[in-house]
Amino acid sequence: MAILLRLIVVLLMLANAVNSEEVIDYRMCPDTACLVYDLYVHPCPEALHNQPCEWKENSNTSIAFKYNPDFGANIPLTQLTSVTIFMDLPFLDIDMNACLYTHCPIKKDTEQYWFYNLFVPKNYGKTFYTVKVEFWDSVSYQTCCFFFALKIV
Ligand SMILES: *[C@@H]1O[C@H](CO)[C@@H](O)[C@H](O)[C@H]1NC(C)=O
Description:
Elements: H1 2-15, E1 21-22, E2 26-28, E3 34-42, E4 53-55, E5 59-69, E6 76-83, E7 88-90, E8 112-120, E9 128-137, E10 143-152
Parallel strand pairs: 4-10
Antiparallel strand pairs: 1-3, 2-10, 3-5, 5-8, 6-7, 6-9, 9-10
The site of 2-acetamido-2-deoxy-beta-D-glucopyranose (NAG) has 4 residues, from strand 5.
Protein name: MD-2-related lipid-recognition domain-containing protein
Keywords: Signal
InterPro entries: Ig_E-set, ML_dom
């Protein structure tokens, strides 16, 4: 299963290679308990110029990355959040079951892969978003978390 997921991620990265780019302009949350690296956002040709990724409404997008957590989790949960000065709002509508996006159980101190396939609906809201990508162990609440900037156009 891990190998299959890895293969799928590699294939999707290749398929998306035309306009999927490595995003280096992201920052970890202060209390994160993991490393995140090799972050690929599709589409994001803007990353070449260190600009926020631009996603169109009514389109399929994806976020893929490698991570190495300080914690393990049998039942990990995840959410995407749009961070604003006033409050954090859910970003897109994703299933909180993290096992849909990575191999479960999540293993401590091990490199693993993450892949979200996302759909941006029509009339979602054309603006800048600071997206918080987050997953955590439902028992210990240890969390892996980072932010990146995105524009929906
Ligand atoms: C998004 O992906 C789904 C599933 O592959 C597909 O059915 C749909 O047509 C795609 N939507 C757009 C706008 O490309």
